[in-house]
Amino acid sequence: MSLGGLGHRAPLLWLLLPFMAGLAAGRLVDLPAPPLLGAAGIAVFFALLFSSWKSVAARRAWSLALGVAMALAAAAYFQLRLNRPLEWSDLPPREARLTLLVTQVFSSSKGQNRINGLAVVADAATHLRGLVNQRLYFSLTLPPGAVPPLRSAKIVAVGVVELMPRHPAEGGFAGYLADAGVNFKFGRGRWLGEAAPPSRYQRFCHLAEQRFEYLLDAGLSDQPALAAIYRAMMLGQKQEMSAEQQALFLHSGTMHLFAISGLNITAIALSVQILLALLRVPRLAAAAAGLVTLWLYVDITGTSPSAVRAFVMSALFVVSFSLRRPANPLATLTTSALLILLLDPMQLFGASFQMSYGIVAVLLLLGGPLAETLLARWPLFTALPESTWRWYHRWTNGAWRGLLGALGIGLASSLVSTISGIQFFGLFTPGSLVVNLALIPISTFVIGAGFISLLCGFVGFLPGSVLFNHAGILLLWFMDRLLRTAMTVPGVYEAARFRAAWMGPAFLAALLAACLAGYAWHWRRERGGFWTPFALTACLIALGVRLGA
Predict the structure, then answer these.
(1) In what order do the strands lie in the sheet with 427-428?
(2) Neighbouring-strand partners of residue 162
(3) What is the per-residue pLDDT across 420-476, written as a single tens digit (0 to 9) for each?
(4) How far apart are CA 543 and CA 111, in angstroms?
(5) HSE of 231 in the Cβ direction (CA atoms, 13 Å)?
(6) Beta strand pairing status for 135-141 and 154-163?
(7) How far is Cα 445 from Cα 267, in angstroms, rounded to an integer?
(8) pTM
(9) Nearest 5 degrees, angle CA 487-CA 444-CA 431?
(10) Distance between start and end Cα atoms, the chain
(11) Which residue from 447, 444, 457 is spatially nearest to 208, judged by alpha carbons?
């Protein structure tokens, strides 16, 4: 069975789907956790009771009770993890001196004397002890000559702390912070000093990132614009790109190429495994070394949520391969999503989680089977026995199979990107399908060239870094020209928005439900076949989207 085929089972979906529904309900409705946990316990009791009966109705009731218990427990878990202090609801903003444990520093342009990021309150004055262990967003002014803190450092600052709205009226940055479970904002602040230095490991990651930048810039001093795109693709440093470059990739629906996510992690994981295989490293040792190398890359580039999710999925695949277990990408996707949400339930509401898992799920449920159906329906050279094929027959057949496979996968992924592009970026990009079909394979080679450049640099062969940097830049130049030409075509993108804020998540959930049902029914023609998710998306877009600014 190929990775894109039908018949893969994922039993954890019976836990994941009600868990996601419970988290969404917990975000929408503010209910205290103890009653929710009590109701979940009652549902578990009935699930155990029904499981002891043998009738068909009892089995159905058992599964329903289990799903209800999981949803209620997830809603309670959301409230516990959010940990929003009710006593602050009626309090005005106030000045405070806080000790912050820095967990993330947002990228900023070089030369700025302000830093922004996320932190956990490590210490506060006696009358503000309720803030300890609360997550907050900070914006601080640095004194002249001060170096921005690294992750895991403890800093002392003074500023104005205020409770953020639970449900922001509009999206934007306030919505992003609310979705991330950040309760407080610490603004108009001044950095007073460092209470504790960052860990040695974080200092190592910072130095390694600087080394990465140096190696990726080797020989590219005369191409600063393309070098910025190169660093953005390899290290996720989108702030180095110009506003014109960011708009170009955003309007074409290809901004995902610059997030350290599945594409980057997969390309680097394959490169590492190929290198270790060439060195004849034993299978289990190669798996361990590959995962350590992959995690270092994730941590050095900032440990973004998308990178961590991609690492978890890659790790599950590597472990199953090393243990010689059959590949089941649907079960792997389900397991990784459940693990990520157990560790950080707030990720469910982020654009990155919804886009990445939504696209991968639709690729597995719809894209793979659709690609196989297209290949089976339109084969080449059917009148010739394969044993009589010449080299040009095999080359043509391989190219044709690659084209049909990419078409099926591209059509499926475009459904999710269409909905999420309108929801999160306010853009309807019908031309993104063709653009991504051309740019994704090229960007994979760019990432491969960047990885080899870093490898050459770390073994001391700087000319090799220069050589592969120029190879990557040449591919990026071709991508840039291709993209600029495509953007001159009328109708490639259009400003758009949903008529109501709830429509984006609801439409995405409806699309995933249609794909799950179609996959379970083996996409049989009498049940709608492959047309159902496309027709559903078209109807939803026609009814719920307003084009124009």
Answers:
(1) 427-428, 494-498, 545-547
(2) 185
(3) 888 888 888 887 777 877 788 888 888 889 989 998 998 889 999 999 999 999 999
(4) 47
(5) 23
(6) unpaired
(7) 8
(8) 0.85
(9) 25
(10) 47
(11) 457
